[in-house]
Write a structure and sequence with these properties.
Blueprint: H1 9-16, H2 19-28, H3 39-52, H4 54-57, H5 72-79, H6 84-94, H7 105-118, H8 132-137, H9 154-161, E1 168-178, E2 182-194, E3 197-207, E4 212-225, E5 231-243, H10 245-248, E6 253-266, E7 270-280, E8 286-296
Antiparallel strand pairs: 1-2, 1-8, 2-3, 3-4, 4-5, 5-6, 6-7, 7-8
Helix pairs in contact: 1-9, 3-7, 6-7
């Protein structure tokens, strides 16, 4: 699926104050990476997929020995560089194999939206419509287009050019914690999601202003997204370096096991949530709960 790099588009847009020019780009050339369906539509499609398609293509769209997978590499193998119009027509005229064209056109569109969602093409503001000519214009490409309109200011253009389909975001959190004393807790992380897999580089600090502990580590987790609600739940566990010199008075590090549980509500570029975190280690375990803001490409 090409190269995926972290793209701080959102942050750069804030810095450059360039919200307006970017939306002009989105309108100039509406491709599959610009959000051609809505989350609500994909949620309807999920239900209809369950009723009409899952018996052969499986609940997770992974297919079975007869029916091909509708996600990932095998989907792109069949459909890369073909148009959404082709895919729509194929599904409508051939599926389900035992009753082609048996669903209303709207249901086929909703199911198509669900398939796009499952393949991690981003959702947007407008639903996928039945206009075949328009669907024929949208081609299924493996990576976000690199071309941008010349009206865009330079930093945004660079960020857009390297934009990636893998959701990647920064989380900042502030709240309360505990390491023997009730304290202030803060947290910062950079997270990236590939399907259900979450990878995060995270640092947390708990301080009562006299003493403090902090860690920096890598976490692996799993995330699920509530269908159509924009809600996300995730859990993670990892390995971190823990600084305990704020407690022992000497320079000291130990290895700890960081844990995290988060619930959030996410728009495409911003999310708000709560996170509980802990670090278990042999010198001074600590834990906290923070209110989080996520910025970046969220799912
Ligand atoms: C009774 C089993 C069955 C059901 C139900 C079914 N399919 Fe299929 N599907 C197949 C088989 C078998 C193939 C591969 C052979 C073919 O292309 O006809 C296939 C192929 C496909 C393909 C690939 C076509 C191509 O030419 O690349 C897509 C896309 C697809 N199905 C989507 C769907 C959708 C969407 C639904 C629900 C509306 C659905 N299928 C329901 C059995 C089924």
């Amino acid at each position: 699926m090409g190269q995926h790099r972290f793209s701080p588009t959102f942050v750069l847009m804030l810095l450059a104050g360039a919200g307006a020019p970017t939306s002009a780009v989105a309108q100039a050339e509406r491709g599959i990476w610009d959000g051609v369906y809505t989350e609500g539509q994909a949620a309807r499609g999920a239900t209809e997929y369950g009723a009409a398609c899952a018996s052969c293509h499986a609940e997770d769209l992974g297919g079975n020995s007869n029916a091909p997978s509708l996600v990932g590499v095998s989907f792109m193998f069949l459909w890369e560089d073909r148009s959404l119009g082709d895919l729509f027509t194929t599904i409508r005229t051939q599926m389900p194999t035992n009753a082609p064209n048996s669903l209303p056109a709207q249901s086929y569109l909703d199911i198509l939206a669900y398939i796009l969602d499952a393949n991690e093409f981003p959702a947007g503001e407008d639903e996928l419509g039945a206009d075949l000519a328009a669907l024929g214009q949208i081609s299924i490409t493996a990576d976000a287009p690199t071309a941008v309109a010349p009206t865009v200011v330079a930093p945004v253009a660079i960020a857009q050019a390297s934009s990636s389909p893998s959701p990647t975001w920064v989380t900042l959190g502030l709240g309360g914690g505990h390491f023997g004393e009730v304290s202030l807790a803060a947290l910062a992380g950079l997270a990236r999601q590939r399907g259900p897999h979450l990878f995060a580089l995270r640092s947390s600090v708990v301080t009562d202003f006299d003493d403090h502990v902090y860690d920096i580590g890598l976490l692996y987790g799993r995330g699920t997204r509530g269908q159509g609600t924009g809600g996300r739940r995730s859990v993670g566990i990892g390995l971190a370096l823990v600084s305990v010199d704020g407690l022992t008075g000497e320079d000291g590090y130990t290895i700890g096991v960081p844990l995290a549980v988060e619930m959030s509500r996410n728009g495409p570029n911003i999310g708000l949530g709560v996170q509980g975190f802990a670090n278990l280690n042999s010198v001074q375990s600590f834990a906290g709960a923070v209110v989080t803001i996520g910025l970046g490409r969220l799912r």
